[in-house]
Amino acid sequence: MSKRVLIVDGARTPFLRAKGRGPFLASDLAVWAARSVLLRQKVMPTQIDEVITGCVMPSAYEANISRVIGLRLGLDESIPAWTVQRNCASGMQAVVSAMESIQRGQSQVVLAGGCEAMSQAPLLFSPPMVDWLLHLQQQKNVLGKLKAYLALRPAFFKPILGLLLGLKDHQVNLSMGQTAEILAHDFNIGRQRMDAFSVQSHQRLAAAQKEQRLNEIVPIYDNDGHCYDYDNGVRADSSLEKLAKLAPVFDLRYGQVTPGNSSQITDGAAYLLLASEAAVKRYQWPVLGEIVDYNWAALDPSRMGLGPAHAIPPLLARNDLKMNDIDYWEINEAFAVQVLACIEALASDEYCQRKLGLAEALGTVPMDRLNVDGGAIACGHPVGASGARLILHLLHVLRQHKAKRGVASLCIGGGQGGAVLLDSF
């Protein structure tokens, strides 16, 4: 398992803020992102050994969405494809699974990434409506059907939002936002600090857009010919004064988590081309970086946002690294308070000793090396794609800053965390 796994190239779509039902299915977005990589590197339809895709909510038309994507890309029909789901880390899981496949020698070249069209999340019938429809279907004569129709009630028609169901942890009966409120209380992180972090995220992404540093983004077009070429959730004019006007949404009376200091509901896709050293040499491909190692962790689902604080320490220890050995960091901004709480936890002797089994605090993540081009608060968090975006963008950050080593991490709904260690070339 010591075989090196190289990342040849990658691309992502713009992340598009959900405003009603979006113009793209998840597989549409995936094809735009992946096709640009394959064309740029002149990959032949038979050179890919497998396709691995992370996606949380594919539509009913996209069963095993990875296979749908592979076929739509024009890859040879003999190339297998499979879909993974690790909630918010699905895209990261796809990349890690590709790494493992190459290390085992099962594959030489893998197309891996994630996609999500959160705006396409389904509306569901309520259980009473489902029961009524089944009862109606069972009626064999006109009288029975008439009695069934008389039992129909207007309340049955109230739909259930599939997206809201997916953003709630039903094991602890808390939404993701409610778990963020718990972290605000546990670590005594106030509203102004959350909002200031959010303003910084928007300002950093706006600066990256203005300076044209997000060269991993490829433009996409809908069926009406409209072009989308930038993350459209960014608010360059965001300010503490504007964010202070927003009401909390998860705890209406005492809460501090608002739409302004939370990630956005977004559609997007990100894909990477991973290969063994032998394949890179054979096809004379460039190398963007190397995925060195990864780590998964789990914790109390009611504190799910602390996942990165649990995933990062074992990753560094296994590779004999300290915090100051890492040049740049990407921690997904599910909520501002969640990232801030992870920073506090890693810098706390008490938390690291009690919860992580360390002798002392791991150390401080420097804010000027964390999410330097903004994060999900500004660009959005299409859950299946975010893990792949973090890896791809961090490799670009390392290259732009002529730096060597980075860690990408994110929290995972259900009480998990993931982290990967990357080296730049």
Write a concise keyword list for the protein shown above:
alpha+beta, ten-stranded mixed sheet, 15 helices, two-stranded antiparallel ribbon, single chain, globular, 19% strand, 425 residues, Peroxisomal Thiolase, Chain A, domain 1
What is the topology?
Layout lengths: L4 E8 L3 E2 L8 H15 L9 E5 L10 H8 L8 E4 L5 H14 L5 E9 L5 E2 L2 H12 L3 H9 L9 E2 H5 L1 E2 L4 E2 H11 L4 H20 L9 E2 L5 E2 L11 H5 L21 E11 H7 L5 E10 L8 H12 L9 E4 L4 H11 L2 H8 L19 H4 L3 H18 L4 E8 L3 E9 L1
Parallel strand pairs: 3-4, 3-5, 14-15
Antiparallel strand pairs: 1-12, 1-13, 2-12, 5-12, 6-7, 8-9, 10-11, 13-16, 15-16
Describe this structure in words.
With 425 residues, this protein is an alpha+beta fold. The chain has a domain at 5-121 and 264-424: Peroxisomal Thiolase, Chain A, domain 1 (3-Layer(aba) Sandwich). It has 15 helices and 16 strands. The protein has helices at residues 26-40, 65-72, 90-103, 127-138, 142-150, 162-166, 176-186, 191-210, 240-244, 277-283, 307-318, 336-346, 349-356, 376-379, 383-400; strands spanning 5-12, 16-17, 50-54, 81-84, 109-117, 123-124, 160-161, 168-169, 174-175, 220-221, 227-228, 266-276, 289-298, 328-331, 405-412, 416-424. Strands 1, 2, 3, 4, 5, 12, 13, 14, 15 and 16 form a 10-stranded mixed beta sheet that branches. Strands 6-7 form a two-stranded antiparallel sheet. Helix 1 (26-40) packs across helix 2 (65-72), helix 3 (90-103) crosses helix 15 and helix 11 (307-318) crosses helix 12. The protein is globular, with a radius of gyration of 22 Å.
